Amino acid sequence: MARWTPDPSFYPSPKMAMEAPEETLAYVALLEPDQTSRPDALGVLDLERGSDTYGQIISTVEMAAPGDELHHFGWNACSAALCPTAPRPHVERRYLVVPGLASSRTYVIDTKDDPRAPKIAKTIEPDELIAKTGYSRPHTSHCGPDAIYMSGLGGANGADEAGGIFRVDCETFEPLGPWESEQGQQRYQYDFWWHLNKDTLVASEWATPSMFENGVVPEKLLAGEYGHAMHIWDLRSGKHLKTLDVGAEQQMVLELRPAHDPSREWGFVGVVVSTADLSASVWHWYRENGEWQIRKAITIPAEPADPELLPPLLQGFGAVPPLVTDINLSLDDRFLYISCWGTGDFFQYDVSDPFDAKLTGKVRLGGIVSREAHPASGPLKGGPQMVEVSRDGRRVYVSNSLYSSWDRQFYPAGLDGWIAKLDVGADGGLALDAEFLTTEFDGRLPHQIRLEGGDASSDSYCFS
Amino acid sequence: MSNWDAGATLLLGAFHGLNPAMGWLFAVAIGFQAQARRAVVGALGPIAVGHLASMAFTVLVVEELRVLSSEATIRIAGALALAAFASWRIASSHRHPRWVGMCLRRRELALWSFLMSTAHGAGLMLIPVVVGLHVNAHDHMLMPSSLGPVTAVLLVHTVAMVAVAGAIAVAVYEFLGVGVLRRGWINLDRVWAYALGAGAAATLLIA
User: Fold this and answer.
1) The complex's ipTM?
2) Mutating which of A16, A88, A149, A234 best tests the B interface, going by the most B Cβ atoms within 10 A?
3) DSSP letters along A100-141, please?
4) Alpha carbon distance A287, A150 (integer Å)
5) Beta A162-168 vs A175-178: how paired, if at all?
6) B32 touches chain A (CB under 8 A)
């Protein structure tokens, strides 16, 4: 149903979005660890200050069947609806588009009638997705200027085929076919986002489904067969423009965070692990004199460890890799957050000058070896993984689950789910909120977190 | 052109100009990208050309039909076209052009403007005025094939459209800022659908 005035959660610019009210709830993907006994769920996390249930999951909506493996969900519409090319400011930010990576099923979840008790409104079945787009294993959803854009990590024919990007209508939720107009040089699909005002889409590489569905394949990792490049595409024509290769030893190029200010032509992308020394890294892409370039901005070294304390996969190396699995950028493009799911470190860097990132905050929670405790708990299992930042940049939420088969591989003793909150000072710095630790998920594990009304990875803007 | 026709033409032009989706918002965005007011004003040319072309397309279709059929048929067909388009806009309000791309050449910007105007049925809204012109023309025993008054309608309309769009674009670029969109952007598509419906009635009622 269209509105008479624009949805109040749409902002023309990221600067204006920073003035948005504080979030009072969040939606969290909750994964069933064994993926067979019960369906995954979407949980509602109460963030209303002073509420008796502040910091607790107050309701969950169960998916239709076990085995979905819910991943990076997004909104049907966001601030990109105010972009001037095909504006539709009177649609509502109402539905969460929640992709099931393992099942290829996508749920459309309606948050309008009662935001604290959302309901499944529609499902896009695997057959329909594959028939209409040729892609499977949907992973990431972004609201774009003309439609919802999603990545699919697999193709139509088995687990050795790589995926691509497809579009979905933002009100009927019909898949609109593959987005690319030609295949280009991209080997695998993972994350994507864009520089809207520059008609540029950026995309990253993980692997084919057979290389991640049953955990990381060590031989392929050591042979440098996982993705090690990001790609520049023309957003208008769907044509591949350039490959930015970071070198075969840099394995798994994952989360892309372009600057939110649409006049800026740079961003950061995380690399999970280097086969040379198990370090992780964050790379800075930028355009100079019309040419897209990439450079290593931050290196995070591995930590030597007693092999006895390591999972079988890592025992031969005698070290804990940091494993940068998620990063996020505040709406003012000033602070970059980095999750190290292996060591348990969580970093804040000041990237006001993206060529000179400065460490401004550090907290450790969990970690494969250190199992660093939270003030509100004993030692923690898992490490900071999915990170979300509030629109005003003052609160950061982290959850600890990555992906069921990888959780088992890196944390074989099993995980107990947790979500922690960190407070950010007006001029940066990270402080753990000692009171806030969500641990009750009814046996499920928390993955992606989306904040009410939008957050630092949900919206794109056409004005500075 | 009677005063009545001229007034209606101007008002419709202003109404089209007011709609951010018809071009002024794009002109503002282009201005911000180039960091220059000159770019805001420069964008108005292609936007006007595209809008005029869309209007002319509809009006010429009406003119062609007029040669082939009676005045009453034209009026009824015009009204039906308007009513059909209005109901389609109300029933499928989620349908919108899928244009992607911010970095446009002038030619592409004119094409964008043509597509946006056409998709919104902007030309259809002029049908009552154009049909009215011919009623008057018959009264004055003018040659039915004279395109003079029709051209005048198109030009007056486009000038009014661009004047309003340009004034808003410059004001938003210079003083107001795009923040005004958050509350000020009322759903003109819905108003538009009702206006098209009213246009259908007017076409039938014109004496």
Assistant:
1) 0.91
2) A88
3) BTTT--EEEEE-SS-TTS-EEEEEE-HHHHHHHHSEEEEEEE
4) 25
5) antiparallel
6) yes
Residues A128, A134, A136, A138: is their CA dihedral positive or negative?
negative
Q: What is the DSSP string of B58-121?
A: HHHHHHHHHHHS-HHHHHHHHHHHHHHHHHHHHHTTT-------S---HHHHHHHHHHHHHHTT
Report pLDDT digits (tens) over A186-228.
999 999 999 999 999 999 999 999 999 999 999 999 999 999 9
- In B, minimum Cα distance to A263 occurs at B33
Contact A11 B112 (CB under 8 A): no
Dist. CA B85–CA B101, nearest whole Å: 27
CA distance B151 to chain A (A): 29
Q: CA-CA distance, A384 to A324, in Å (whole number)? A: 10
Tell me the C-alpha distance between A432 and A346, whole Å: 11
Query: Which of B25, B103, B179 has the CB atom closest to A87's CB atom?
Result: B25
As given in the structure block, the two tokens for residue A15 are: 């600067």
- Substitution target in A4, A76, A90 with the highest count of B β-carbons within 10 Å is A90
Q: For residue B97, which residues of chain A lie inside 8 Å, CB to CB?
A: 86
Verdict on whether the full-model pTM lies above 0.90 = yes
CB pairs under 8 A between A and B: 94
Distance of CA B159 to the CA centre of its chain: 11
Cβ–Cβ < 8 Å for A337, A327: yes
Is A199's CB within 8 Å of B189's CB? no
CB–CB contact A4 B25 (8 Å): no
Alpha-carbon distances of A297 from A269, A353, B188, rounded to whole Å: 10, 11, 47
* Interchain CB distance below 8 Å, B100 and A10: no
Residues on chain A touching B189 (C-beta within 8 angstroms)? 2, 90
Residues A261, A430: Cα–Cα separation, whole Å:
23
Phi, psi values for residue A126, rounded to 5°: -55, -40
Query: What's the CA gap between A298 and A350, in Å, rounded?
Result: 12
Q: In chain A, which residues have their Cβ closer than 8 Å to the Cβ of B120?
A: none
Task: Identify the contact set of chain A against chain B, taking CB-CB distances under 8 A.
Answer: 2-6, 8, 10-13, 16, 82-91, 144-147, 169-172, 196-199, 235-236, 263, 462-464
Tell me which residue of A439, A401, A407, A403 sits closest to A420, measured CA to CA. Answer: A439
Q: What is the pLDDT of residues A339-366, one digit of tens each?
A: 999 999 999 999 999 999 999 999 999 9
Q: How far apart are alpha carbons A457 and A17 in whole angstroms?
A: 12
What residue spans define the domains of chain B? 3-205
Q: Pick the closest to residue A252 from A276, A238, A231, A272 (CA basis).
A: A272
Show pLDDT as tens, one digit a residue, over chain B (207 residues): 678 788 889 999 999 999 999 999 999 999 999 999 999 999 999 999 999 999 999 888 887 877 777 778 877 888 888 888 877 777 766 666 778 899 999 999 999 999 999 888 888 888 888 877 765 555 444 444 566 888 889 999 999 999 999 999 999 999 999 999 998 888 887 887 888 788 888 877 764
Residues A406 and A299: their CA atoms lie apart, in Å, by 23
What kind of fold does domain A14-451 have according to CATH? Methylamine Dehydrogenase; Chain H (2.130.10)
Determine whether the interchain pair A463/B32 forms a contact, defined as Cβ–Cβ distance below 8 Å.
yes
- The answer, for B96 touching chain A at a CB cutoff of 8 Å, is yes
